[in-house]
Amino acid sequence: MTPWYREPWPWILMSGPAAVLVAGAATAWIAFAGADGLVADDYYKRGLTINRLLAREDEARRLGISVSIFREKDILRVKLNGANPEALFVHLAHATRAGHDIRLRLAPVSPGAYEAALPALPRGRWHVVIEDPRGTWRVAREAS
């Protein structure tokens, strides 16, 4: 009589639960190693400030402020109509990766035109928020 470990059936029957254990360990590693960039740590505070943000966007519409965004190699240019602040702040938020978000200060180069050096950005969808230094208005756009 051959010992049990030389028979194929015990190994075939044990391979199913062993595969589940390996898959579970791999899934747990993926879950803990990768941060979820879509969930904000302070989601409650952000929810409370949504009315203020909407009021600032309404203020931009009321003032007739419009923007055009241009990207040329490593320069971000913004053409602004309806206002002439001393500078602009641009927040570029990646749609799925919070670690790639950047905030830029754009300096005026001519009346209504602002620009700043733009670091290399990963491909994807971007949420662009342009606002004045005093925080009285803001304009939000989507860009690729």
Brief summary of the model shown:
With 144 residues, the protein is an alpha+beta fold. The chain is 32% helix and 33% strand.
Description:
This protein is α+β, with helices and mostly antiparallel strands. It has a 7-stranded antiparallel beta sheet. β3 and β4 form a beta hairpin.
- Bin the strand percentage: 25-35%
The whole-angstrom Rg is 26 Å
The class by helix and strand makeup works out as alpha+beta
Reading the helices and strands in chain order gives: HHHEEEEEEE
Helical proportion, percent range? 25-40%
DSSP strand tally: 7
- Helical run tally: 3
| Largest sheet strand order | 1-2-5-4-3-6-7
Distance between the termini: 69 Å
The global form is: elongated
Q: Output mean pLDDT.
A: 87
| Sequence stretches where pLDDT stays below 50 over 5 or more residues | none
User: How many strands, what sense, and barrel or not for the largest sheet?
Assistant: 7 strands, antiparallel
List keywords for this structure.
single chain, 144 residues, alpha+beta, 7-stranded antiparallel sheet, elongated
Task: Give me the secondary-structure topology.
Blueprint lengths: L7 H26 L9 H6 L1 H14 L2 E7 L2 E7 L6 E7 L7 E9 L2 E5 L8 E6 L6 E6 L1
Antiparallel strand pairs: 1-2, 2-5, 3-4, 3-6, 4-5, 6-7
